[in-house]
Design brief:
- The protein is an all-alpha fold.
- The protein has a single domain (18-93), classed as Cytochrome c-like domain (Cytochrome Bc1 Complex, Chain D, domain 2, Orthogonal Bundle), CATH 1.10.760.
- Helices cover 41% and strands 0% of the residues.
- It has helices at residues 19-24, 27-33, 52-64, 81-93.
- The chain is globular.
Length: 95
């Protein structure tokens, strides 16, 4: 059983991420989650259209080690919370 605590993150218009910047950081994500955020493998979640706050919280949980996944370990080491926000904003806006 995996227990994940809930991180608190509320966004207002001034705190929205930059989707163009986020897109530039998704090459590694695309390897598993698809170039358009839709995974071809049911083991990996789709990122297209995900809620920004939800995605940021999950990325933070992976980076902190609170949420563990062999494939995600280390992938986020060089990213920060602003990067998470930009990436999440990009995937949220994919139509």
């Amino acid at each position: 059983m995996i227990i994940i605590s809930v991180f608190s993150l509320s966004l207002n218009a001034e705190e929205m991420g930059d989707p163009k910047r986020g897109k530039t950081m998704t090459a590694t994500c695309a390897a598993c989650h698809g170039t358009n955020g839709v995974s071809s493998n049911s083991e990996w979640p789709n990122l297209k259209g995900q809620q920004i706050t939800y995605m940021v919280n999950q990325l933070k949980a992976f980076k902190s080690g609170e949420r563990k996944n062999v494939l995600m370990n280390g992938v986020l080491d060089d990213l920060n919370e602003k990067d998470f926000l930009d990436i999440s904003t990009y995937y949220n806006g994919i139509q």
